[in-house]
Amino acid sequence: ICCVIFIVVILGYIALGVVAWVHGDPRKVIYPTDSYGQFCGQKNTLNKNKTILFYFNILKCASPVVLINLQCPTTQLCVSKCPDRFATYIDVQASYRYRPDQWNYFRQFCKPGFNNPRKSVAQVLRDEDCPSMIIPSRPFLKRCFPDFSTKNGVLTVANQTTFKDGRGKTRNVTDLREAANGINNVLDARSVGMKIFEDYAISWYWILIGLFIAMMLSLLFLVLLRFTAGVLFWIFIFGVIGIIGYGIWHCYWEYDHLKGIPGSDLTVYDIGFQTDFKVYLQLRQTWLAFMIILCGVEVIIILMLIFLRSRIRIAIALLKEGSRAIGYIMSTLFYPIVTFLLIAICISYWAVTAVFLATSGEPVYKVMANQTLCKYANLTCDPETFNTTNVTKLCPGAQCTFAFYGGESLYHKYIFIFQLANAFVFLWLVNFAIALGQCTLAGAFASYYWAYRKPADIPLWPLFSSFGRAIRYHTGSLAFGALILAIVQLIRVILEYLDHKLKGTQNSFTRFLLCCLKCCFWCLEKFLKFINRNAYIMIAIYGKNFCTSAKEAFFLLMRNVVRVAVLDKVTDFLLFLGKILVAGGVGVLAFFFFTQRIPVFAQEVPMLNYYWVPLLTVIVGSYLVAHGFFSVYAMCVDTLFLCFCEDLERNDGSTAKPYFMSASLHRILGKKKLSPKKA
Questions:
Q1: 167-223: per-residue pLDDT in tens?
Q2: Which of 137, 293, 461, 462 fits a disulfide with 144 by CB distance 3.0 to 4.6 angstroms?
Q3: How far, in Å, CA of 162 to CA of 157, rounded?
Q4: How far is Cα 625 from Cα 208, in angstroms, rounded to an integer?
Q5: Pairing of strands 399-406, 380-381
Q6: Residue 523's pLDDT is what?
Q7: Where are the beta strands (DSSP E) in 324-379?
Q8: Number of H helices, E strands in the chain
Q9: Mind listing the pLDDT tens digit for each residue in 495-514?
Q10: How many CA atoms lie within 13 A of 206 on its CB side?
């Protein structure tokens, strides 16, 4: 049933994308739109050479977000260039007879065709034929924004701190701050972004070489784990014990050294709270407390090693077995590429659909007139027939101007619902792609474990066979697990949105409740990911449905909870060590290369604006490459562990019920001898 529902949802998602593509127009995001619904710079229109949008009264615009994404409640006009001076319509009109050059300059920011300086100022401003003022501006995202600068720590526009608003008031340029908040920072970021793009353009092949080296190092590390897992773990453990032992000795030395020094016998309570931490280091009590804490940690680690030594040996043996399994099924190392491509397709489809949904709708025109005198104000209108209606007679000066993109149809009313559905199905598909990968890998590694004679009994193409089984038989189970996770993730997204919206509220209880809910759903998501992962392994082994598999996996893990904890920590440590070694090693090599410290390759290093751009890309990329390979290894170990627990519960090592585990695992258990394997 869930498989059928999942397929129907995918078909519906495709239909939603098609509808969005039919109604949407991304040019509405990329190109600005004037008050007549025409794109600035659009070919075959009067705006062909006018590529920049000018706002009559930018003070009415709340923020750049409103200016770029929505519509600012003022007349918007396409112009060829932004104004470069302060001027008001009142001053220009008063001097147009003896200063015609000022009028000719100002009227290019008026509505097309307007050239009547004799019209009264009140009527011009009422009809919005011209702006009441212009201010020095510069284009940003093809829109005119005030040309802000800072002079001696004071915000200015063209070195002025005040300006006339054209309505009889002198205002401070800080009044423009809200309408253009953050514009200067973004403008500076544009130049930095161009330099970064140039660095990528001339160093991309060296970055690829670095990532290839990271891939080879990751493969080498996984191969070496078969022989070095135990050595690496015990070196780390004894290193920690040694470091803590040195810490205990140092604390005792400091404690003894401070003996007899005036003031060292004071207590922390006596000196109270101090912002300078060094004050506490002059007290014997501080070093005594440190020594007691370190002694406690040392004792706990040693006791854990004593009582958990057999389980640690099993964990290390499973890690070695995982390396051996990957050695037999090398194709599994490259399966993350399939998962990456599936997720990339999901992200691309979601992003494109979201943009088309956001830009859906036809131009909506509304009557702009005096609110108190015209009953038709703010009502929708048709610009082609507006001049033939009675509105112009009843409301002198009223105009039919572009307001926003939208519509009154059912589709346009539910755009927000469609965006939510787009986000939800996106989360569902991404989680399904991850689930498919986990189930496929689990099936491949399970076929290795349950092969009685390794590697003779391993299927010919274990990865492809497992992928085929997952698609053919387990799509519904995987979709159901992904659905549960997607619901929780959508709730978390909504909570984050509410938290962002309510960040400025003074209601402490609301903030506390949101914080608790976010924490609870974060924990729930982590728990579900753990359950789903092990459920997919059981699905791959036995082919049962999701709920049954999740229940069996959970109780199987609970019966082996200590082994689970030990294996998880040992695996996490070794894989984290591997990621750090790969990313750090390649990062150091990249640093010496891009800073021209390798004489052999000094002439090959490209000239860069910022050497840290390819360096950080190589380091982060190497970490992600290592994470991709090691995620396969982690899945292998988890699968082998569940198979190992099942093997112990279902079999007893007798001829009738022989163990399927390897000889090394069986030796660690120290139970019965392995029954002779039949030839």
A1: 778 787 776 765 555 444 444 555 566 677 777 888 888 888 988 998 888 888 877
A2: 137
A3: 8
A4: 11
A5: unpaired
A6: 95
A7: 362-368
A8: 21, 13
A9: 888 887 777 666 778 888 88
A10: 26
Enumerate residues 6+ apart whose C-beta is below 8 A from 184: 148, 149
158-167's contacts with Cβ under 8 Å and 24+ in sequence apart are: 158/85, 158/86, 160/86, 163/86, 163/133, 163/135, 164/86, 164/88, 164/91, 164/133, 165/59, 165/88, 165/132, 165/133, 166/88, 166/89, 166/90, 166/125, 166/131, 166/132, 166/133, 167/125, 167/132
Q: What separation in angstroms does the CA of 231 have from each of 163, 227, 572, 626?
A: 74, 8, 16, 21
pLDDT of residue 677: 47
> Contact at 8 Å (CB) between 637 and 319?
yes
Can you tell me the mean pLDDT for 380-406? 74
Smallest CA-to-CA distance from 515 within 493, 494, 497, 499 is with 499
For residue 162, give the H/E element and its range: strand 162-164
Beta carbons of 608 and 199 less than 8 angstroms apart: yes
Reported in sequence order, the residue ranges of 285-434 that DSSP labels E, i.e. its strands, are 362-368, 380-381, 399-406
CA distance 288 to 25: 70
Calculate ∠ Cα 493-494-496, nearest 5°. Answer: 65
On the CB side of 98, how many CA atoms lie within 13 Å of its CA?
3
pTM over 0.85: no
Distances (CA, A) of 157 to 188, 279, 297, 332: 17, 50, 62, 61
SS3 571: helix
pLDDT above 70 for 158:
yes
Q: Where are the alpha helices (DSSP H) in 258-308?
A: 268-271, 284-307
Per-residue tokens: 136:
């020095």
Overall residue count recorded for the chain in this entry: 679
* 308-313-318-324 Cα dihedral, nearest 10 degrees: 170
